[in-house]
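Z., the sequence and structure:
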Amino acid sequence: MSEPLHTALSLAADGLPVLPLRAGKVPFGNCPVCATNACGGRPNMKTPGPCACPHPCHGWAAATADSGVIISSTWVRAWRDAAAVAYHPGGADLTVVDLDHPAAIAWARVTLPVTRIVPTTRGEHWLYQGAMQSTNAVRPGVDIKSTMAYARWLGPGTGTMTALPDVVRALAVRETPTVQPVAITVPARAGGGGCCHRTPTYLDRGIAMAEQRITAASSAVHATVYRTFLAVLSTHGRCGCLTDAHIARLFTAAQAKGESLRHCTDAWTNALASLGL
């Protein structure tokens, strides 16, 4: 029996949902049926819970405390190649505050209640009893891992675990960005006449699609925001159908992805200039 498998079975016996990790601290890839999430599996769902696939698929959602699944034939290869063991904190009613460097640890020591501490390669995991929403980068060097996330098992740690405090829950609350859209004036359509885009359904659908495109961006957010602004203005910018409310929706979507008001304003201004508006 491999060391990761032995550790996994021991943790599962204590009720901790576990999963194998390959080199690089990442889960094993999905099986052919679940590849690219074609099965519509757990990552597409909004509620935490186990994956229905018998293979260790869908990352954190594969975590289980069922020893029969852990030693099943579909998991054998993964355990043989596993470099480490991970667990689903939320599935065990736990929350891990992942402190990634000394500055983050220093902040925690003066801000958070004392609890069980597990040393990591670069910092510490502070474990609290209770589950909450997982959120990355709640402050520099600090991630929260609980529901719909996994944490690497690095040992039981030291100290007495305390109840999840409100100060940790509050870290996951994102303030709604204050949006100050740029007032624009666009020329009337050449030739005058009524606006062919004033049908509310057409315009609302276009703005909704633009919001979705920005929200779905997983990389190159700056470029995605600019291209989306450009697409909206190329369709609706010359006939005066855009209102401040429409622009505010686009800015809100961009700021929710981490764009600053200045970046939004610059992207909008550059898109106007590109189109000669």
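The longest helix spans residues 200-215. The chain has nine helices and ten strands.

Let me know what you think.
H.
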